Amino acid sequence: MEHFGRIFEAAPVTLEVTATCFTVGALLGVVLVSGRRSRSWVVRSVSRVVIDVLRGIPPIVFLFIVFFGIGSGAITLSPFQAAVIGLGLISAAHLAEIYRGSLLAVNRGQFEASQALGLGRTTTYVRVIGPQAMRVAIPGMVTWAISLLKDSAIVSTIGVAEIMLVANQDARASGSSLTPFIIAALIYIALGTPLAFLSRYLERTLSLKR
Amino acid sequence: MHTWIFEDWSGWLPRLLDGLLVSLQVTGLSLALGFSLGMVFALLSSSRSRLVRWPSVLLVEVGRGMPALVMLQLVYFGLPSASITLDTFPASVLALTLTTAAYTSEIIRAGLRAVPAGELEAADALGLSKADATRFVVIPQGLRIALPALMGFAILIFQISALAFSLGLPELLSQAYSIGAATFRYFDILLLAGLLYLAITIPASWLVGRLERRLARHL
Hints:
The structure holds two protein chains of two kinds.
Chain A: H1 2-9, H2 11-36, H3 41-56, H4 59-70, H5 79-105, H6 108-116, H7 121-151, H8 163-173, H9 178-206
Helix pairs in contact in A: 1-8, 1-9, 2-3, 2-5, 3-5, 4-5, 5-7, 6-7, 7-9, 8-9
Chain B: H1 5-45, H2 50-65, H3 68-78, H4 88-113, H5 117-125, H6 130-160, H7 172-183, H8 186-216
Helix pairs in contact in B: 1-2, 1-4, 1-7, 1-8, 2-4, 3-4, 4-6, 5-6, 6-8, 7-8
């Protein structure tokens, strides 16, 4: 029981890492998807390479590059800062792909209608296409949040005191090492399951076909 | 002084390639075992008997709900207190096999469900038994539908294999990290390791995308 208390106390840190990285990713993802749909092919190609690299590299490797590679040189990063930069950028790339898919799901006629009304490119995206694409993107975004919640366990390797790190310490300190990991697993499941239901619910309510 | 970077890289590369080989071995073994186990779970989770279906669904949800890192550490650091002690390599393979099985069983189940009902009716009309219909009609078509998603997952498991670093398995990331610790050139060596991962994942996801478009033509 004392295992549970100690590990559970670390849950807010896991949630904080997840929420911060998700927010950073959701905002930067908009920048990346705008680049991906830019009229200049240079901007398009650069965005595409950035997205592919961030999605192709294992998150823990990228996290290490940020923390040990960059954060131990000229600039010093705290484990939390490195975690937010590392997982935030990876989230941005994944969310950019989710946004891109949802933009493609918006009917072409909406673009033509906006053009016929004389709306500018920015107005078209912000007022017409964006809101409709959001509807399609939201369930996917929640699914990404679930993955991120689980991926956030890797920030224990650079010393952020979240669920996994505390479970690990607990396993080393106490004789029984199985219990702390089972507790950690149960906490992750307990945190992720409501999100999974939310994703399924949103998918049903936001879908246009009914 | 910084020596010419590529000279260092060529000195480090053999060790990194050894690591990459271990990463690929763990990935390959876990995928082969995990896909098979995933198939079993997919069939059990589609069973009509509640007594069979529910435990299977529960196990799959637990496997999917916990981070792969927790699974790895549970198997390697946790099981010894239940007097099962595994070396780093078998422990990594076992943990990643279980994770693979949990995820792929859901992918396969979705594929099996996507097989048109008419196919089953036709099998029934031809007098095929339930088992034969599953074996010869549903599974081949269902797997084909699931194939792109399964291959996408294979790339993900290759990325996840880097987490075996935390058990001390001498795979690509561990090799890079220990070179970094010895030379303090973390940035260069980790970047090189990252490039090696990308050299596999980017062409692989390009191939999966192509396969997906190809298969979609005939559906």
